[in-house]
Amino acid sequence: MSFTLTPENLDDLAEGAAVLGTGGGGDPYIGRLLVERQLRAGRDVRIVDLGTLRDDALVVAVAMMGAPTVFIEKLPSPEGSVAALRALERHLGRAVDAIMPLEAGGLNSMMPLVAAAAADLPVVDADGMGRAFPEIQMVTFNVAGVPGSPMGIASDHGDSAVIEAADNDRMEWLARGLTIRMGGAAYTASYPMSAATVRETAVPGTLGLALRIGTALRTAREHHRDPFDALTAALRGTFYSHGRVLFRGKVVDVDRTTVGGFARGQVTLAAGGESGDPGDPGDRIVITFQNEHLVAVREGGHERDGQVAAIVPDLICTLNTETGRPVTTEALAYGQRLTVYAISTPAIMRSPEALACFGPSAFGLDRPYTPLEELTPATP
Amino acid sequence: MSFTLTPENLDDLAEGAAVLGTGGGGDPYIGRLLVERQLRAGRDVRIVDLGTLRDDALVVAVAMMGAPTVFIEKLPSPEGSVAALRALERHLGRAVDAIMPLEAGGLNSMMPLVAAAAADLPVVDADGMGRAFPEIQMVTFNVAGVPGSPMGIASDHGDSAVIEAADNDRMEWLARGLTIRMGGAAYTASYPMSAATVRETAVPGTLGLALRIGTALRTAREHHRDPFDALTAALRGTFYSHGRVLFRGKVVDVDRTTVGGFARGQVTLAAGGESGDPGDPGDRIVITFQNEHLVAVREGGHERDGQVAAIVPDLICTLNTETGRPVTTEALAYGQRLTVYAISTPAIMRSPEALACFGPSAFGLDRPYTPLEELTPATP
User: Fold this and answer.
1) What is the CATH classification number for the domain harbouring A74?
2) What ipTM was estimated for this complex?
3) Which residues in chain B have their CB less than 8 angstroms from residue A168's CB?
4) Which of A159, A165, A182 sits opposite B159 (nearest CB)?
5) What is the structure's pLDDT at A380?
6) B178/A contact by beta carbon, under 8 A
7) Are A151 and A31 found together in one domain?
8) pLDDT at position B313, please?
């Protein structure tokens, strides 16, 4: 969908993007703050439907690279994203016509808006992940064979580089190495392609979807309705059809390290036996993450012990049980009362080629992909 | 000086370059082999005096980056250097007119010849280090304020990148990060500048000097004369006036690790009390290296215990005692009979600015720079 961002719908968009961030994608608050500054400075953020672009318009995916744990300590700048974009433009010898989010989650759905406002370019309502993923080759563009190179990358210290990698896996590997040396966070502009190619390869409408999710959660809070019911209703009729409450409980353990440029770890929730908790006391769920949540496994004394409740690329979201507000992996803390909510991914993200790129095996997980709606049927 | 390389003078040039490599710069045998292949393929290697170039000719410094320990396991390719050069040319939108060695030591005095033959360009008889140094900002160009960026860098896997760093220290830092991810060895093309600027900032004539040193050592061997006397005689009348035998003995300890993309360690030699050894039995010398030898310190029971015999940027060379052939840090082994020979550096490498860039403190050494000729006076 096409729309112009206002301070009002920015809050909803940021919250919905944090849900699609599936625990990762960086702190949405920071990204929202940066977009807000652009709006206050009188700049426009124009989000345009893919259908409105000329076939040969040059579109570039903009994102931050690095561990979300670093972004908390170091506020990203609009200048960094624009520097990455300009480095790529100099290399291509051509101006970019539109910016596109690389991923539809958290900070990385906000940074393209910041860059677009700063560079006076429109943002395309589409992305390459349909959620957040930790690595830059984990995109539908790559699944379709679109090269991510040449890729512009810039630091907060006045450095930039253009990488031409042999393939998209090596692009991730090289850019990640530079990102670590750039201080653990870098600005990237990659996958330069025509709008025609974006139309064939992107997950469409994900900014619109984020706005819809955020609006549903806010409205539920305003009207004292259950936010999870509202979320499930909002997903109905989109490409992300199925929403499921997997678990409700308290965080009893968080194991998190920043290693190799990623935030990696596990979070364990235990059911408290409180009203509304769908589980017996003693039931647990363990979620493994690499920036984003990857797999949720049930633990406990009953027949579902060891059962996978949801697995990547389906979305596993940790949301505040009272408010439905998303909690990212770097903000997880002992004692938080959370609801684990899962969302099914569109068909374009479930093909064998897509699963090879960002399914369980791409993360070294020893479990097959099974669609959420089979793992966890809807409660009637 | 200007000359065209032949198979005959290649051997001398490679050996002299290995002496200037001061223990580092990579295995000279490998570089010589690669140049030989170019000559056998009928390509010319034309070395030209700085004076012959037009003021506005574009000159680029070519070098391998990485730990010499890696080059032994992975033979460098002409294609890699040309790929780095082409990446830089695309960025500059201009063809390079001449290649220059970044450093005058070991493998890195040979790779520019390989690249120049493969790209059909002349090589300028000058360099930025006047020896070998482990880091890319340790050049007289940097001392004079010439930016090393934009810098082309390429791997053996079909990847390339162009780095535009905020300064030359950051260029080293970022390129080293990429080099590690490129497999521990990478091809670089940096410090693009006009021939006029090269004339003002480079150490001139270092390829000619290497040829002179190599010829002196070979001739001494052929005529059964002392190679170290020949070396000292060859240096007389050049910018590298003073040569000194510091120590003669056997390797009794080598401590070497490859860490952070460098070969770091220490080698200890003990005097054997044999005929011709200038020292009592029990005398030792300990040389600390980071790719190249940095400081030689005397140990033993007499009054010179703890005394610095020579220190960076003066050259400390480990040469086979019988033949005068240089032994690089990665080839050092227990039991080798070596002569530690030091060479004074030209004035351009001893200014306060130069010492700040590649003197003892630049390597974290806690000792002041003292010229070789003061530390170790000539024996009459």
Assistant:
1) 3.40.1610.10
2) 0.84
3) none
4) A165
5) 56
6) yes
7) yes
8) 98
Residues 119-158 of chain A whose Cβ lies under 8 A from any Cβ of chain B: 155, 157-158
Shared-domain flag, residues B291 and B146: no
- Please give the pLDDT value at position A303: 72
Distances, alpha carbon B109 to alpha carbons A246, A337, B35, in Å = 64, 64, 11
Which DSSP string corresponds to A150-185?
SEEEE-TTS-EEEEE-SSHHHHHHHHHHHHHHTTSE
Q: What is the pLDDT of residues A261-271, one digit of tens each?
A: 778 999 999 99
CB within 8 Å: A181 and B174: yes
Q: Per the structure, how many domains does chain A have?
A: 2
Is A282 domain-assigned? yes
The residue among A350, A330, A360, A344 whose CA lies nearest residue A72 is: A330
Contact A303, A289 (CB under 8 A): no
Mutate to test the interface with A, among B160, B168, B176, B187 (most CBs of A within 10 A): B160
Residue stretches of chain B with pLDDT short of 70: 27-28, 68-69, 273-281, 301-302, 379-380
Cα of first residue to Cα of last residue in chain A, in angstroms, is 32
Identify any residues that bridge with A293 across adjacent strands, giving them in sequence order: A289
CB A38 within 8 A of CB A45: yes
Residues A281 and A355 in one domain: yes
Token pair of A64, please? 């931050």
Question: Does B217 fall in a domain?
Answer: no
Q: What is the residue-averaged pLDDT of chain A? A: 93
Contact (Cβ atoms closer than 8 angstroms) between residue B122 and residue B99: yes
Whether residue A282 is predicted with pLDDT greater than 80 in this model: the reply is no
The reply to whether A220 falls in a domain is no
Q: Indicate the range of A24-28, A80-84, A176-180, A235-239 predicted with least confidence.
A: A24-28
Least Cα separation, residue A108 to chain B (angstroms): 24
Yes or no: say if B128 and B61 are a contact pair by the CB < 8 Å rule.
Answer: yes
The whole-number pLDDT of residue B303 equals 72
In angstroms, the CA A181 to CA A135 distance is: 17
Whether residue A213 lies inside any domain: the answer is: no
Specify the pLDDT at position A85.
Answer: 98
Which of B91, B159, B170 lies at the smallest CB-CB distance from A174? B159
Please report residues of B whose CB lies closer than 8 A to that of A180.
Answer: 177
**A90–chain B Cβ distance below 8 A for any pair:** yes
pLDDT at A280 over 80: no
What does the pLDDT average to over A184-202? 97
3-state SS of B36-79 is HHHHHCCCCCEEECHHHCCCCCEEEEEEEEECHHHHHHCCCCHH
| Each residue's pLDDT tens digit, B51-105 | 999 999 999 999 999 876 677 777 889 999 999 999 999 999 999 999 999 999 8
Q: Give the residue numbers spanning the domain of A184.
A: 3-204
| CATH number reported for the structural domain that contains residue B363 in this entry | 2.40.390.10
